Predict the 3D structure of the following.
Amino acid sequence: MRRVTGKTIGAFVRDEIAKPLSADFFIGLPESEDKRTAEMIGPKRQAEVPPLSDIALMALINPQQNPEMANRREWRAAEIPAANGQSTAMGLARLYAALAGDGSLDGKRILSSKAIGRMTMPATTDGRQDMFLGFTDAWGMGVALNRPGIYGTNARAFGHSGWGGSFGCADPDARVSIGYVCNQMGAELVGDPRTSALCGSVLSAAASQ
């Protein structure tokens, strides 16, 4: 990212995506936003880790994942796109609102329809098992496809969930986007029950309008 644009990933997301969409979303949180940031609370129970090889287990617990690490200023300030995007629910919803349509929102375009189509194509063959987590693969280019059905009943829906239960998703047929953030983390590694329940309720309400 830095070689191509001259910007860090956090600066690129801020200038080219978040600001144009008026989305409250950061990769690398400014210290001025700390007063708005909820403290993360670890899961109430341990996650049920599926049987893993020694190598996979080392990747998961070495170093040991500590939920409270996210409350440190160093963590909030770091630009780790695979781990510490920080957002409000509306911020996530606005990001996915552009993706639920033609790549634009309120006249501001971030992607072409062709790019969204490429992004949501399956990146792996049907039925391939994720060698790390053990479930059937459902990956596009940076998004999770809705093969497991956690983002509603539409197989064309897509999104991504964070550790602990926060998520964003888009249903391009219903033209609906959803953002959900929480500070009380759930223990599930895949498929927090809050996700499917919330998506089902929102999409059902939208369909009845």
Notes: The chain has one domain: 2-207. The helical segments are 2-5, 9-21, 54-61, 73-77, 89-100, 113-119, 193-207. Residues 2-207 form a domain with the Beta-lactamase fold (CATH 3.40.710.10). The chain has seven helices and eight strands.
